[in-house]
């Protein structure tokens, strides 16, 4: 039985069905079992994030800025966030200071808190080019910090590639030229909502850094998983299609407790009814299917426990589908959200 902790799921109605009914916000359930509780329901939630050193502190990135819980998700209050109705899609805690937290927004901006998330300020808007225009403003989907050089932060952008900061988020440089170059390859071309076939290679959903290879961040894109060894000047295809029949990369995370271990959520497309969770125990050289379930929607998010590697959870977009293992992948349990809900975007555990 896992130690006392909780699973959190962020639900939003953003994608494609503006007239859909159903609940949005944040759901919470003890990892040891029990019923789901709808703990935040008046805003859409695009991401849920458990503070890595304080599991009582939980953040929700919402359609109205940052909401914060200090009682392990029992209740949430809106933080002192400077901009109303601003979408927040990602969080990062500075490894040097647990009170310093970054938040990524849409349109592209980065906010910072220096008091544990009580109050926030907007940093200078990143001066990067617009490579792809779509029906929504680009989003900072994920932030990752280099454990060897913590002032270096990478951000995955939907649908605008990758950007990098070397001064702790104060300024940013564009790392998308190499991705656009790769999109010239026929099998990496994809155009759905814009006027460029580079769209798929700019459709960034997540970025992670393996502590065993801190100078080789990995980004999950529509077209798969890609890595760089020269700070984003060029990118290399990790060719995950060698191991998976589906390659739409929605999430990729380095395990916080398993050395050189990565997890990737790979599906068919943004709107699909299939997908799988894959694990690499050699830093991404090879991958194996890890889950033992059949999802009926795109796998949107992977929830890893900070200290217990046996606990892994996934959320699929439609019908409130949540699955999890608490024995390192030997067995899996379905734990669907109750009633009518809109689309799952995020799963977290802690």
CATH architecture: 7 Propeller
CATH topology: Methylamine Dehydrogenase, Chain H
- Alpha carbon gyration radius: 18 Å
Tell me, rounded to a whole number, the average pLDDT: 95
Spatial order of strands in the largest sheet: 3-2-1-28
Return the CATH class: Mainly Beta
Instruction: Sketch the topology as an H/E string, one letter per element.
Output: EEEEEEEEEEEEEEEHHEEEEEEEEEEEEE
Q: How would you classify the helix and strand content by structural class?
A: mainly beta
Q: Enumerate how many helices there are, as a single number.
A: 2
Strand content: 35-45%
The rough form would be described as globular
CATH superfamily: YVTN repeat-like/Quinoprotein amine dehydrogenase
Largest sheet: 4 strands, antiparallel
What number of domains?
Answer: 1
Distance between the termini: 14 Å
State the total count of DSSP E strands: 28
Proportion in helices: under 10%
Model regions low in confidence, pLDDT < 50 over at least 5 residues: none
Topology record:
Layout: E1 6-12, E2 25-30, E3 37-40, E4 45-50, E5 58-62, E6 65-69, E7 77-78, E8 87-93, E9 101-106, E10 109-113, E11 121-122, E12 139-145, E13 153-158, E14 161-165, E15 173-174, H1 177-182, H2 199-202, E16 204-208, E17 218-221, E18 224-227, E19 236-237, E20 248-254, E21 262-267, E22 275-280, E23 288-289, E24 299-304, E25 312-316, E26 322-325, E27 333-334, E28 343-349
Antiparallel strand pairs: 1-2, 1-28, 2-3, 4-5, 5-6, 6-7, 8-9, 9-10, 10-11, 12-13, 13-14, 14-15, 16-17, 17-18, 18-19, 20-21, 21-22, 22-23, 24-25, 25-26, 26-27
Can you offer a commentary on this structure?
With 350 residues, the protein is mainly beta. It has a single domain, classed as YVTN repeat-like/Quinoprotein amine dehydrogenase (Methylamine Dehydrogenase, Chain H, 7 Propeller). It is built from two helices and 28 strands. The chain has helices spanning 177-182, 199-202; strands at residues 6-12, 25-30, 37-40, 45-50, 58-62, 65-69, 77-78, 87-93, 101-106, 109-113, 121-122, 139-145, 153-158, 161-165, 173-174, 204-208, 218-221, 224-227, 236-237, 248-254, 262-267, 275-280, 288-289, 299-304, 312-316, 322-325, 333-334, 343-349. The strands form seven sheets. The protein has a four-stranded antiparallel beta sheet with strand order 3-2-1-28, with no helix packed on it. It has a four-stranded antiparallel beta sheet with strand order 4-5-6-7, with no helix packed on it. The chain has a four-stranded antiparallel beta sheet with strand order 8-9-10-11, with no helix packed on it. A hairpin with a 7-residue loop joins strand 4 (45-50) and strand 5 (58-62). The longest helix is centred in the middle third of the chain and has 6 residues, at 177-182. The radius of gyration is 18 Å and the shape is globular. The mean pLDDT is 95.
């Amino acid at each position: 039985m896992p130690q006392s902790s909780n699973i959190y799921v962020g639900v939003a109605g953003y994608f494609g069905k503006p007239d859909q009914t159903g609940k949005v916000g944040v759901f919470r359930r003890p990892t040891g079992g029990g019923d789901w509780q709808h703990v935040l329901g008046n805003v859409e939630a695009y991401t849920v994030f458990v503070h890595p050193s304080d599991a009582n502190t939980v953040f929700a990135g919402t359609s109205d800025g940052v909401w914060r819980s200090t009682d392990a998700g029992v209740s949430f209050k809106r933080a002192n966030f400077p901009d109303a109705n601003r979408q927040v899609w990602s969080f990062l805690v500075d490894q040097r200071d647990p009170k310093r937290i970054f938040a990524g927004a849409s349109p592209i901006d980065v906010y910072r808190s220096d008091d544990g998330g009580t109050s926030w300020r907007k940093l200078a808007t990143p001066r990067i080019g617009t490579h792809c225009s779509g029906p929504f403003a680009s989003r900072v989907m994920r932030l990752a910090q280099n454990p060897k050089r913590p002032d270096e932060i990478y951000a995955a952008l939907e649908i605008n590639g990758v950007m990098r900061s070397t001064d702790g988020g104060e300024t940013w440089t564009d790392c998308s030229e190499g991705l656009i170059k790769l999109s010239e390859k026929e099998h990496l071309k994809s155009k759905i909502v814009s006027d460029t076939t580079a769209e798929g290679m700019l459709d960034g959903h997540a970025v992670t850094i393996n502590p065993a290879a801190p100078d080789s961040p990995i980004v999950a894109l529509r077209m798969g998983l890609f890595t760089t060894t020269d700070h984003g000047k060029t990118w290399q295809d990790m060719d995950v299609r060698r191991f998976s029949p589906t390659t739409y990369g929605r999430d990729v995370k380095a395990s916080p407790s398993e050395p050189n271990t990565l997890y990737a959520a790979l599906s068919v497309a943004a709107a699909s009814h299939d997908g799988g969770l894959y694990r690499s125990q050699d830093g991404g050289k090879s991958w194996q299917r890890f889950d033992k379930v059949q999802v009926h929607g795109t796998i949107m998010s992977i929830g890893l426990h900070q200290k217990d590697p046996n606990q892994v959870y996934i959320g699929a977009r439609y019908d409130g589908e949540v699955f999890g293992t608490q024995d390192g992948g030997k067995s899996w349990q379905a734990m669907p959200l109750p009633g009518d809900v809109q689309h799952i975007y995020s799963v977290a555990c802690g």
